[in-house]
Amino acid sequence: MEKFICTYDNDETKYVQICNHIKNLIKNDELEDGEKLPTIRSLSDFLGVNKITIINAYKKLEQEGYAVSKMGSGTFAKKRDFNISFKRKYSEIFKTYSKEQLSKYIDFTGEVVKGDNFPVDVFKKVLNEVIDRDGAEAFIHQESLGYDGLRKSISNNFWHKSISIDNILIVSGAQQGIDIVSKALIDVNDNVIVEKPTYIGALSVFKWRRANILEVDIMKDGIDINQLEEILKKTKIKCFYVMSYFQNPTGISYSEEKKKRILELAQQYDFYIIEDDYLSELIYNEKLKYKSFKALDHNDRVIYIKSFSKIFLPGIRLGYLIPPKEFKESIISSKVNTDISTSSLMQRALGYYIDEGLWIEYIEKLNCSNKKKYRLLVELINSKLGDYVQCNYPEGGLHIYFTLKSEGMDSVQLFYKCKKKGVLITPGVLFFKNSKDGLKSFRINFSEVTLENIEKGIEVIENVLKHS
């Protein structure tokens, strides 16, 4: 209790001074995030002030984001996300800048493939074929699971009929899939494990559900299993959110051995795995063989989510979800309550596109295009950035993740300096629950940038780092 002693200044109210003292304890790590504060009665007795003073101090701490009260449990210290203002500013750039404004930058921040790769003429013909084939039916809402023709296409072409079409739910992309699953599974104060770092959108969903988010460090072949087991021994977990291939942002892919061990732990400790299959099609090294958690799952522990939006036309907003039997009905109800049905015409068109073999052709062309960009980027990193950064070479996906070697500059400063010179990067602070953890990292996405601009952009980053 001694650390709560504070000296009073007669010029300021006592409750404000007590509040400020506790804030400093939190800022200086003398109080840990989530640590319980003394009860109102015990602190008022210890400091020799009335209970109302402590009540007001705790209320002010909550209002300023340094504490959270839980009914029947007490008040708990809360670390403020010191980079929340930056996150807002970063988001505003892409919300408020026009397409013309953004076109003036070399933009390494995108998360989708370049639109130029999409065969628009081919897809126009597919749409016409579907309308000729199905007539007005093509525009009618489908059943809650989605258009059965598309579900059949997914089962036949991606799962070799090992997944029944009755277990495939069509959704409007991975973000909606994560949201639907969270609404069906996660209650307030449920414990959710995520990779550290992880996808911004997933963090937002889990925070919105008011879940307790626990992070596990990611290594070269997936998360640290020892850390995971330590958490599981002490804490009841509801689910683990994972990106199994070319993880966003690190580009890490899980080894099969690690996948199997995590599946064993899921069964042993009774939690579910939300698998976000992000970019498994985009493999630039023939030695890498794709095998999802879902494909290895013998105990129905995996909720599999796949989006077509990242590698197909983003505006189409289509993906699918494979739920465990236990949660199938609640997940379907969550989907219906969210938006009833996903575009019927686009579902039919995508099903036709897959069945006609056009999807495979498209992925092959896309891999060829992105492989050239990836190889160029690796060459430039080795020749120009090696003195300033460390990185993992993922051999697939759409991005590369960097860690700054120098202590002189953080990723937020790097962002602003590069922006002034016409280059946009994604600072690592966006991918962590606590932004401080991401100050030494950043991500660049190469899929929406031309080969020429990749060279120019890396040169800018090199010059900024060289003169920092």
From TrEMBL:
Pfam families assigned: Aminotran_1_2, GntR
PROSITE patterns: HTH_GNTR
GO molecular function: DNA binding; DNA-binding transcription factor activity; pyridoxal phosphate binding; transaminase activity
Record keywords: Aminotransferase, DNA-binding, Pyridoxal phosphate, Transcription, Transcription regulation, Transferase
Signal listed as a keyword: no
SUPFAM superfamilies associated with the record: PLP-dependent transferases, Winged helix' DNA-binding domain
Signal peptide boundaries: none
Record-annotated HTH gntR-type domain positions: 12-80
Similarity field: In the C-terminal section; belongs to the class-I pyridoxal-phosphate-dependent aminotransferase family.
Protein name: DNA-binding transcriptional regulator, MocR family, contains an aminotransferase domain
Organism, as annotated: Clostridium collagenovorans DSM 3089
